[in-house]
């Protein structure tokens, strides 16, 4: 397997060190060993990357759809051939296990193949005008340079989603990956697309040391040549990004955190509901934005559901992410581990019942289930990124919806019921960007309109929906004859 030792920035088609010459060591979350020495860029690197993206823009925006398509299709095939290496990189860089690595790989190969057709999507409309002799068009064109800021947690998908559709639509991009995923969420994409024939400057990657994201991100957003921001990450950071973008009058697509409910109604088939809930809460060690954080169960079935759910959760294999049997691997870093421990302890101190888990085991946090968590506990109202889930009892379906919506977030939700039509009626009442009936909340496909409402963000990713976010509509009129004016 390929061993990554060094991650350099990619600016204007060149692999470059940080302008200031600094580096940092990115560590493997499971072994603690150095995964790679990474360029620690700063505002100067961000400006250089914007310059490269701006230079590449006219040619790329004017390129033939067929040429863009060939590059993306070649990249899809190349990614498909590198699956074993990528699985290894995802495990070593982010602690991602085999199952979720395959989820990411499948998504990205399909994303590239679908995006390859985007250049051929209709680019406008002919509009009727009340002005005789005037032809009017609404024409979609690229927005220009896009700043893409991505998180670490599903690094391959979230960096891919942030760059592939904007590039396919004729924009150029500066990608700022998380300090926890500079390779699989950054340099890897630059290499994949460059090897597939992407011209220099169309995709640039700037990396930085932990704690230094703010200066790089602010430089990108403030630069007048950057015309749109695509941000995926926590709500706390998203709020900062939106404030800076607002100051510079720029639109930001914001994909933020969630506190996602899974409702289990009294008519749900129990073993299937338990399987769904365990997957939704613990896939990728609870470190996806879509994970079920609260399982709201109708009172009549709660005792049976809780017994089966806790038993299955407690038995999930935990440990080395490179072991294909592992379900719950290490959490991303020490800070995340101590936050999980502190929040569980706080909830228990406030009166919650701990049904399983609750204490770190080495670098892992074992599957943890709590019931009776009081509303003032942080676990009850804030996203807690890890394998911790809350059980909540509801009187009936109406009460379940009320409880599900008792949050400032609104990303994903699931409803499990014996009657899918009843589930669809309830889905329309939920304040969530995505609702799956008879499935748990963790599911995404490249062509779907993925995104949240309220504190979970604004805007949608998804091939077909991306055009709304990463193109500008220009109104063009043309006349053959001169107009008659009143003066
Ligand atoms: P994060 O907010 O800490 O970081 C996200 C990005 O913002 C990273 O690139 C980081 O370097 C950068 N950043 C951090 N501090 C910054 C600052 N002060 N100014 C500017 N940029 C800054 O999030 P994370 O821990 O990397 O990722 C997990 C979070 O992302 C969770 O909240 C999760 O729910 C969310 N997420 C949302 C989606 C979605 O589609 N809605 C998808 C995945 C993850």
TrEMBL record:
Protein keywords: NAD, Oxidoreductase
Superkingdom of source: Bacteria
Keyword field contains Flavoprotein: no
InterPro entries, alphabetized: Ald_DH/histidinol_DH, Ald_DH_C, Ald_DH_CS_CYS, Ald_DH_N, Aldehyde_DH_dom
Organism, scientific name: Actinoplanes couchii
Protein's name in the database: Aldehyde dehydrogenase
Transmembrane segments: none
Protein family membership: Belongs to the aldehyde dehydrogenase family.
PROSITE patterns associated with the record: ALDEHYDE_DEHYDR_CYS (PS00070)
Source organism phylogeny: Bacteria, Bacillati, Actinomycetota, Actinomycetes, Micromonosporales
Domain Aldehyde dehydrogenase residues, every copy: 15-476
Pfam families documented for this protein: Aldedh
Keyword DNA-binding listed: no
